Write a sequence for this structure.
């Protein structure tokens, strides 16, 4: 009897030791890819991570094929090609992203506007054809920018731009949508810990494997030789309400931290000559790069698509209007950095940000 | 009835098997121990090879250069030819890496600053060049950077 018991114990122990490692593994798996016009780096932990990463990268490719402006037969390219001609039937996800974009246009009084594309194309910032156009050229094109001329037909899943020459670019929001989709795929695979970087747009799932909060650096918008590349650190934690979808379900909540800034893409040679920074975030009301004194913004939200749209909008709205908006929406936080290196914080962020660069001063 | 017969025969053959295989028990236990030890040694080996601090340069997702970052190394510049006159110049110090120069249109890589912790990258998007640090370094003070 005793012998049997020792046998049983030995075998049980052996099995546990052999498999235990795999059952509770927190091993990290990563997947890097060039997509959505940027560099994406996905990292997820645990046994199911590898399969989830495959699914996520396939989903990203799908989103890219539907929404990239440079892919000829994408929904977006088709919508633009048929501007002023006819409505275009699109995929469900493209429809959802455009509908969401129009919602944020309404919310921001038109400061966030996907119909900015004809202006963006005129300037060509980030391409080798970048130039400063004449005011007359801008004035001629500006009337084409108006989100109210995007007509959605929910029943037939069509999108129609009412005027010839109009165009939309989902570049300011599709990355956020893709991050939300990756987070959803990870949550459905019951991944507990993950960190997603989509060209500087960060989405975290749950905590670090050791249980502590993820720490995300906020890019120093004016990095000088030898400076740290970030000027502050925020924790990826719940700043407000946890969405109902993840309440009590055992699903790790996703938190997205997205930024916009005049430092990402601008006309470098003009800047060196004149000191004027013509960057890639345009004010739909002037047709010029946003010039509100804000040089960078960061927004934290459970929804990456929301953080994507609002970080861009804030840069165009300016400090006062931008912070008023952020403080008025429950569950989101944000900050704005101005050209004189002042940092303005939303109410909930004040106690949860750590400044690492003393050349920035916090405005209470 | 038929099923009971099959069941009976299975049970009897199992009983037989038990008596036959009894001498083999020790061997099975021995094998379990050997497998466990092998797994352990394997992990140790993997840990050692993952330890060396390296700068890895990739282009189009392919590794094109691997540079060991040693305490006593001489700093050097590496020129990466991305075709059609496109190039990046990467500076390799013993505990950091930075992109010094590039003729890419957006200059994001040049303005990025220095990387020194495992997991950090500098990306030159137009030329699809990625410079990354791997191996054993101090833990980076931040998990990632939003920009």
């Amino acid at each position: 009897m005793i012998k049997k018991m020792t046998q049983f114990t030995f075998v049980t122990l052996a099995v546990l030791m052999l498999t235990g490692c795999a059952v509770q593994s927190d091993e990290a798996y990563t997947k890097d890819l060039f997509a959505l016009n940027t560099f994406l780096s996905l990292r997820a932990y645990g046994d199911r991570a590898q399969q989830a990463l495959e699914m996520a990268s396939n989903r990203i490719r799908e989103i890219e094929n539907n929404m990239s402006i440079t892919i000829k037969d994408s929904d977006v390219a088709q919508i633009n090609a048929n501007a002023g001609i006819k409505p275009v039937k699109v995929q469900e996800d493209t429809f959802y992203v455009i509908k969401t974009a129009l919602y944020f246009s309404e919310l921001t009084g038109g400061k966030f506007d996907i119909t900015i594309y004809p202006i963006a194309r005129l300037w060509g910032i980030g391409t080798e054809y970048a130039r400063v156009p004449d005011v007359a050229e801008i004035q001629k094109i500006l009337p084409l920018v108006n989100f109210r001329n995007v007509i959605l037909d929910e029943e037939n899943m069509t999108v129609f731009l009412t005027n010839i020459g109009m165009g939309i670019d989902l570049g300011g929001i599709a990355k956020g949508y893709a991050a939300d989709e990756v987070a959803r795929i990870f949550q459905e695979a019951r991944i507990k810990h993950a960190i997603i970087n989509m060209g500087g747009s960060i989405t975290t799932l749950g905590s670090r494997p050791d249980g502590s909060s993820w720490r995300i650096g906020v890019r120093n918008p004016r990095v000088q030789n030898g400076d740290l590349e970030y000027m502050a650190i925020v924790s990826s934690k719940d700043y407000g309400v946890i969405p109902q979808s993840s309440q009590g379900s055992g699903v790790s909540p996703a938190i997205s931290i997205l930024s916009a800034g005049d430092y990402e893409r601008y006309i470098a040679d003009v800047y060196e000559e004149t000191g004027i920074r013509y960057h890639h975030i345009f004010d739909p009301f002037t047709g010029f790069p946003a010039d509100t004194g804000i040089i960078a913004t960061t927004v934290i939200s459970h929804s990456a698509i929301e953080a994507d749209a609002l970080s861009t909008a804030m840069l165009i709205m300016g400090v006062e209007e931008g912070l008023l908006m952020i403080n008025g929406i429950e569950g989101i936080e944000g900050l704005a950095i101005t050209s004189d290196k002042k940092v303005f914080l939303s109410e909930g962020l004040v106690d949860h940000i750590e400044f690492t660069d003393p050349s920035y001063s916090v405005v209470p | 009835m038929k099923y009971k017969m099959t069941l009976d025969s299975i049970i009897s053959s199992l009983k037989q098997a038990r008596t036959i295989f009894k001498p083999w028990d020790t061997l099975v236990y021995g094998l379990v121990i050997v497998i466990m030890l092998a797994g352990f040694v394997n992990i140790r080996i993997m840990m050692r090879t993952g330890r060396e601090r390296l700068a890895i340069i990739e282009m189009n997702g392919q590794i094109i250069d691997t540079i060991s970052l040693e305490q006593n190394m001489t700093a050097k510049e590496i020129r990466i030819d991305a075709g059609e006159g496109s190039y990046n110049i990467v500076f390799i110090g013993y505990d950091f890496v930075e992109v010094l120069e590039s003729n890419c249109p957006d200059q994001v890589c040049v303005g990025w600053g220095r990387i020194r912790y495992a997991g950090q990258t500098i990306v030159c998007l137009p030329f699809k060049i990625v410079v990354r640090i791997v191996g054993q370094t101090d833990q980076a003070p931040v998990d990632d950077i939003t920009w």
Summary: Chain A is about 35% helix and 20% strand. The longest strand of chain A covers residues 28-35. Chain A touches chain B through 50 residues (CB under 8 Å). The first helix of chain A runs from residue 2 to 23.
